[in-house]
Specification:
19 helices, 54% helix, Beta-Lactamase, 9-stranded antiparallel beta sheet, 724 residues, flat, 4 domains
């Protein structure tokens, strides 16, 4: 059996799941082992780094302390001898030193043997005076006295003038490679600009202690030196400087000694100036000892500088995730430099992985052995019996005689075989019984089919007679059955329209109506019930007709939508009638607006002369000389004019009534005075027609009422006027 086929079997799947489970366990065990081993190795590495950094710091502190001790002894001797009287120093200076053609002052040739004598160099611009010569000879004597002792641990011993560029000292010939320091130094060398010179000044060294300058490039040596400098003061005045150098190569060989496999060591100052680092040794030399971490893009060094300068206390050790390195940082107390040892994080992980590999390989070997044994057991105990059962199932499906099954087994497989054999017998009997029942049902189904065909014929005939298209939309299959006068409404033949599905129906709807029709269809499927929609439908000839679409959603017993039954009716004639009605209404509204405008114009033309008449009437009434009879006539003129003005307002009110804009102006007014005015206005007209006109007011009539006085006058004028 091929591997791909075996993987599809029950035994293969079971074996695969077991393999995956064991693999997961092995991987988990390996991961846990790796984590534990990694933690142990990490802790051990950090302890080693910390201890190494501390021990190396202590070791080199002894070297720096020795320089301080040497200088203190020399300083005390210098001060003692400086304060003693001396008389022949000028003669001795002239005997020892001379000015050379380049302008510099050096030892005379007979005293220039570097093995035998201390040698000196004085800048060409220096003019030695008496005090200078006295100091110079004291420099020479002390160099001769202490040089042999000092150069056992340092490459040289020398003295510097506190203010002038002058140097007297002795160099170890072997370690300095027999350098002719005084002879090889240029006459204009700026000694007073070197850090070893400046480090002893009060401004740079207020504590007046032994300090270590950074690496300096010495032209005569052609290599970097690390100076230890001690100022010599007398009564607060800087009178001299004693110094000793250490070759940077010797310092690197000692400091950067690889005591831990894979570890990298570096020395730097608080300002980021690199003192020693194997990776940047060439750069340090090229920059003559003034190469800074800030000039590099090395994340390792930048991280160490930040950790050292921001450390609350030293030594400091730990893991820096940004640079992926384990570190230990301590301070060299003498020069105040930082000594750092680091191990790359990858080295720790590699070591931990190598240590944890045996767990992984042992687990895989155990996995292979377990899988082999399980494969044999599964094949014998499960796979082979199941294949026999599968063969029996296929034979039962083909109605063949069943192969014998192992029903004698006492386990689940045997019970399954016995149960299957019993089931096979029952199924055979059931098949025979169903064959008989099927023959009886076939005749009944034929009758039902014929009845359905007749029902569908009647259904289509009814649809044709109603003049509506009837449709049945199956939401499950998407099929739509159409019936009715399809050619008359759609312009398509019955055969063409029978192919229209929901997508084809959607494309025939006018683009402006399509979204609304689809929303109606979607809403009815959510809310259930009936629906109604109107839209324009494109016929087969390209012409649009208005369709009224009504229907109902039919659901099953579980309220799941199944069918939509509906009708499509051509309502184009109704739409045209509605359009004609809207146009007629618009014409009527237009005529009504014209009438209202006409009334407004007429009222304006009438108001102008009427207002003049009323104005003159009011002027006459204010004339005190007007006779009583004439005054009464003018009053009637005014009241009639007011009435005529009211009629004009009535015309406008009529227009307002027609436009539903009439509003009542309710105000308090005197009822008796109001009625008296109306009576006086109509008395003249009644007299002209030989009629008696009297007003009888009820004594209980209220003196004042509240209402629209103008509209009430209008009503009474109309009623009384019609009566007269």
């Amino acid at each position: 059996m091929r591997i791909s086929a075996y993987r599809q079997t029950l035994a293969g799947k079971t074996l695969l799941k077991i393999a995956l489970g064991i693999t997961l366990i092995v991987a988990l065990a390996s991961g846990v082992s790796y984590a534990l081993i990694f933690q142990e190795i990490e802790g051990r590495a950090l302890d080693q780094l910390r201890e190494y950094a501390i021990q190396r710091a202590k070791f080199h502190e002894a070297h720096f302390a020795l320089a301080r001790q040497f200088h203190q002894v020399i300083k005390q001797e210098f001060l003692r001898r400086y304060q003693e009287p001396s008389s022949d120093f000028e003669r001795r200076f002239d005997q020892l030193m001379m000015r050379y053609p380049d302008g510099a002052i050096r030892n005379r040739p007979e005293y220039a043997n570097i093995v035998r004598y201390s040698t000196g160099w004085i800048h060409k611009d220096v003019q030695p005076d008496r005090e200078f010569k006295r100091l110079w000879m004291l420099f020479f004597d002390l160099s001769e006295q202490f040089a042999k002792l000092t150069t056992t641990r340092f490459v040289n011993l020398y003295f510097l003038h506190p203010a002038k560029s002058a140097n007297m000292g002795y160099d170890d010939t072997v370690r300095s490679n027999y350098v002719q320091w005084a002879a090889d130094t240029a006459a204009d060398w700026a000694l007073n600009e070197q850090e070893s010179f400046l480090a002893a000044t009060p401004a740079r060294n207020p504590g007046r202690e032994t300090v270590w300058a950074g690496p300096e490039y010495e032209p005569a040596y052609h290599q970097l030196l690390v100076p230890a400098v001690t100022p010599i003061d007398l009564n607060g005045v800087h009178i001299a400087t004693v110094a000793s150098d250490t070759l940077l190569d010797d310092l690197e060989a000692s400091i950067l000694h690889a005591g831990i496999p894979g570890a990298v060591h570096t020395v730097f100052r608080h300002d980021g100036r690199l003192i020693a680092d194997r990776a940047y040794k060439t750069r340090i030399v090229e920059h003559e000892g003034t190469y800074f971490i800030g000039q590099t893009s090395d994340t390792r060094l930048h991280a160490l500088l930040a950790l050292a300068t921001h450390a609350p206390a030293l030594p400091r050790y730990g893991y820096d995730a940004g640079a992926d390195q384990y570190y230990a940082i301590s301070r060299l107390q003498g020069p105040g430099w930082y000594f750092a040892s680091i191990l790359p994080g990858g080295a720790i992980r590699t070591e931990a992985f190598k240590a944890a590999q045996w767990v992984l390989w042992t687990g895989f070997a155990s996995l292979a052995l377990v899988l082999g044994v399980l494969a044999m057991l599964l094949e014998r105990q499960i796979a082979a019996p199941l294949r026999q059962l599968l063969l029996a199932v296929r034979q039962m499906g083909e109605r063949r005689v069943l192969a014998p099954l192992d029903t004698a087994r006492r386990d689940e497989i045997g019970q399954l075989a016995a149960a299957f054999a019993a089931t096979a017998r029952s199924v055979t009997e059931e098949i025979r019984r169903r064959d008989r029942d099927l023959q009886q049902e076939s005749s009944g189904r034929i009758q039902i089919y014929n009845a359905l065909q007749a029902s569908e014929t009647r259904y289509r005939a009814v649809a044709e007679q109603t003049g509506h298209i009837v449709y049945d939309h199956d939401l499950v299959s998407g099929r739509i059955d159409w019936a009715g006068p399809i050619p008359q409404i759609t312009g398509y033949s019955i055969k063409e329209f029978a192919k229209v599905d929901i997508r084809g129906w959607t494309e025939c709807i006018h683009p402006d109506d399509r979204a609304k029709a689809l929303q109606t269809l979607e809403r009815v499927q959510i809310e259930f019930g009936k629906y109604q929609a109107e839209y324009r439908f494109r016929r087969g000839d390209g012409r649009y007709v208005y369709i009224e679409d009504e229907g109902i959603l039919l659901t099953d017993l579980k309220d799941r939508s199944q069918h939509i039954l509906g009708t499509m009716k051509d309502i184009s004639e109704r739409k045209r009638a509605e359009q004609a009605l809207r146009e007629a209404k618009e014409e009527a509204d237009k005529a009504n607006r014209a009438k209202s405008q006409f009334l407004a114009d007429i009222s304006h033309e009438l108001r102008t002369p009427l207002n003049a008449i009323l104005g003159y009437a009011q002027i006459l009434l204010r004339d005190a000389a007007l006779p009583g009879k004439a005054r009464n006539g003018v009053t009637i003129i005014q009241q009639s004019g007011d009435h005529l003005l009211g009629l004009i307002n009535d015309i406008l009110d009529l227009a307002k009534i027609e436009s539903d804009k009439l509003e009542a102006d309710v105000q308090p007014f005197g009822l008796r005075h109001f009625l008296q005015g109306i009576a006086e206005a109509f008395a003249v007209r009644a007299k002209q027609k030989n009629l008696d006109f009297h007003m009888n007011a009820d004594p209980q009539l209220p003196v004042q009422v509240q209402g629209d006085e103008r509209k009430l006058r209008q009503i009474l004028f109309n009623l009384i006027g019609n009566a007269i």
